[in-house]
Design brief:
single chain; 111 residues; mainly alpha; 5 helices; globular
Length: 111
C-alpha cells in the first residue's frame, strides 16, 4: 500500500518542504534574531544549528550551492559575534541567511 493512498495530502510535491523545511527556517530566524537581541550566544548558535539542514539542501543545488557555504559560515560567525558582545556585526552576519531564505521562498512560491 502506497503512502499516498493512506495519506492523500502526501502526494503533493510541496508537502515535505512546507512541513519540514520552512518551519525550521522560521524557527532558526526567530532564535537567531532573539539571541542577537538579548545577547545570548547559545540562542544564536541554536538557530544556526537548526538552519543547517536547509543550508545543506541549498548547498546541493548547482546554481547557488557556493553561496550557501558562505551563508552558513557567516550565520555561524554571527553566534561568535554575539559571544564577543558585537550585536551590529552579528546582525550583519545573520542577514545573508535571511536574504537566502527569502529568495528561496520566492522561488518556491512563484514556480
Amino acid at each position: 500500500m502506497r503512502a499516498s493512498s493512506v495519506f492523500p495530502w502526501t502526494s503533493s510535491i510541496l508537502f515535505v518542504p512546507i512541513v519540514f523545511g520552512w518551519p525550521a527556517v522560521v524557527l532558526s530566524l526567530a532564535l537567531t534574531f532573539s539571541g542577537i537581541g538579548v545577547g545570548r550566544w547559545w540562542l544564536t548558535l541554536a538557530g544556526t544549528l537548526i538552519a543547517s539542514p536547509f543550508l545543506l539542501y541549498v548547498f546541493a543545488t548547482p546554481r547557488i550551492g557556493w553561496f550557501a557555504a558562505f551563508v552558513g559560515a557567516s550565520y555561524l560567525a554571527s553566534a561568535q559575534a554575539v559571544a564577543r558582545s558585537q550585536p551590529a556585526y552579528a546582525l550583519a552576519l545573520a542577514t545573508p541567511f535571511m536574504l537566502l531564505a527569502c529568495s528561496v521562498a520566492s522561488l518556491v512560491l512563484l514556480h
